[in-house]
Amino acid sequence: MELAIDTSTNFASIALSREGETVAELTWHSEQNHTVELVPNIVHLLNQTRLGPQSLAGIFVARGPGSFNGLRVGISTAKGLAIALSIPLVGISTLEIEAYPFAITGLPVCPIHNARREEIATALYQQNDDWQCLVEEHITTVDALCRQTKKETLFCGEIPPPVGQQLRQRLGKQAVIPAPEARLRHASQLAALGWRRLNKGDQDNPASLQPLYLRQPPITQRRVR
Length: 225
Prior knowledge:
The chain has two domains: 2-93 and 187-220, Nucleotidyltransferase, domain 5; 95-183, Nucleotidyltransferase, domain 5 (2-Layer Sandwich), CATH 3.30.420. The chain is 31% helix and 28% strand.
């Protein structure tokens, strides 16, 4: 069994899977309560399936971009479990997790998160012969993204309503935007992606895996005097 942990944003999700196929999942709106909610919910999910931590053979974790506090809690918990149980750890981009459910469309898939300061975090993926990342995670503006979009593209993720409106106005039919409920991120998607990597023998070092912030947390930025 594997445990998938995603605390990237206010929506948190955990799942138990067997070779990437979800057995049980719990998704909830956490706000900024990841610290007090995550471990009890992991214990609850294990109890529901009558499993103990020793049943786990791998840990998958969303590594961001996302909430500074949420990512810190999720990744530190995942690293702690991986080290304590001596099992593999795999980190997956939060944007990739959001894009993966739409691979079947064959369209370029562009996940979007609010990065504040009138900017967005995004990337670009597409299923061709294999699932591929066409553009790595980065911060940009809606205006720049619209100028770079030359063909029909599916936009997903936690898209702020004003951003969705701009995409529709600027791109017209080139912008395919599923309903919000279809864009909700689930740990089952993380489990599938995590198993793909783990099954190829690809895993992360718990000592060196770090959150993908794209922009440094405010507490690490040098203060201008």
